[in-house]
Amino acid sequence: MSSSLETRLAACERANSRLRRIVLAQFLVWPVGALVLAGVALADRSPAPVASIKAREIAIVDGKGVVRARLSGDLPDGVMANGHVAKRGSKAAGLILYDEQGIERGGYVTQDTGSNVMLTLDSKYRQAALFVAGPDQEQASALRLWSTASGIELRSDDMGSRMSVNDRSGVILQQPVISTISAEACGEYRALAVQYPKERICQSRFTEAACTACLTH
């Protein structure tokens, strides 16, 4: 009788042990399965597109951490080769591109002063190409390409459309020739001649004869 009871108790203990192992295994498997199912559900769900991003500035960097593009509502002055700072002359907003050294190489911007919109391309040392449009109804615009020794410009404004070629001395070819500079433009060139007497700004846009008549009257 006692031996039979002990046998039954041992069998119950073995059965309880197997049950505990089964319950423990299921307890471990269920959370893992739930996590796997949740991960599959998240993987199948595409991220919702962002409808709009509002920011003062977004900077894009390359693998070395060098800023290669900057989209900003208030652009900093340009930094050229040898650390030279190129002043913008006005608060500006837009997109600026940089090379592998972080030197500014061009951009697409609008300026607060004058409200011009422009596309610029730069060497590592200075601006080399400019495409600009003014804000007024006359729709003045210009495309200018230049090196350190010469340049060429296509321009349309209230004085007409023309092509001008210049060297360091001033305009050497203009077609068609603008013989009379408008009174408004003359006023601006006179002020610039006083402020920058060595720059010959008028002569870089018009013939010597037209500038002499403009600046001396």
Biggest sheet: strand arrangement: 1-2-5-6-7-8-9-10-11-12
The average pLDDT is: 86
| Percent helix range | 25-40%
Span between termini: 137 Å
Hey, roughly how much beta strand do the residues contain?
A: 25-35%
Instruction: Please state the CA-atom Rg, rounded to the nearest Å.
Output: 37 Å
How would you sum up the global shape? Answer: elongated
What's the number of structural domains?
3
Structural class: alpha+beta
Low-confidence stretches: none
Summarize the helix and strand pattern as letters: HEEEEEEEEEEEEHH
Q: Give the biggest beta sheet.
A: 10 strands, antiparallel
The number of distinct β-strands equals: 12
How many helices in DSSP terms? Answer: 3
Transmembrane segments: 21-43
Keywords: Membrane, Transmembrane, Transmembrane helix
Written overview of the protein:
The chain is an alpha+beta fold. The chain folds into 3 domains: 1-49; 55-135, no CATH class; 150-217, no CATH class. It has helices spanning 2-44, 183-195, 208-215, and strands at residues 57-61, 67-72, 78-79, 85-86, 92-98, 104-111, 117-122, 127-133, 141-146, 150-157, 160-167, 170-175. The longest helix is centred in the N-terminal third of the chain and has 43 residues, at 2-44. Keywords: Membrane, Transmembrane, Transmembrane helix. The chain crosses the membrane at residues 21-43.
